[in-house]
Write a structure and sequence with these properties.
The chain is mainly alpha-helical. The chain has a single domain, classed as Helix Hairpins (Orthogonal Bundle), CATH 1.10.287.1700. Helix content is 90%, strand content 0%. The longest helix has 63 residues.
Amino acid sequence: MTSAKDLKQISPLLEAVHKAEEAKLARITKAEIRLRAQLEELQKARQLSVQDRPVESDAARRAGADVVWQTWIDQRRAEINFELAQLAAKKPAAIAALKLAFGRKDAIRQMTKRVKRDELLRNKRRSY
């Protein structure tokens, strides 16, 4: 039979695993938020550069730099979308690992509680 003491020794290990899985998912989520913010900034930059301005009054447009800039924005957006796709592929596995770690941690907590209760009842019966 497993004692509360045995279960209590396992508990810190499972807590550490749970925290590690939480941190892994948090890193993925943080990276996703950062990339989405970058996409938003690129969209704003694109809108600013496409504003209706006469070609004659804009040296960058006359030199063709605006086309280079638009191309760079499009390439960068594609890179960010690729990175987002990679994160989206990792996220379900990270969520599943976190659920598993939480389940194990919670199971040990419940088992510890039950074993302590059973030990208490057993000790009461012995004292009679």
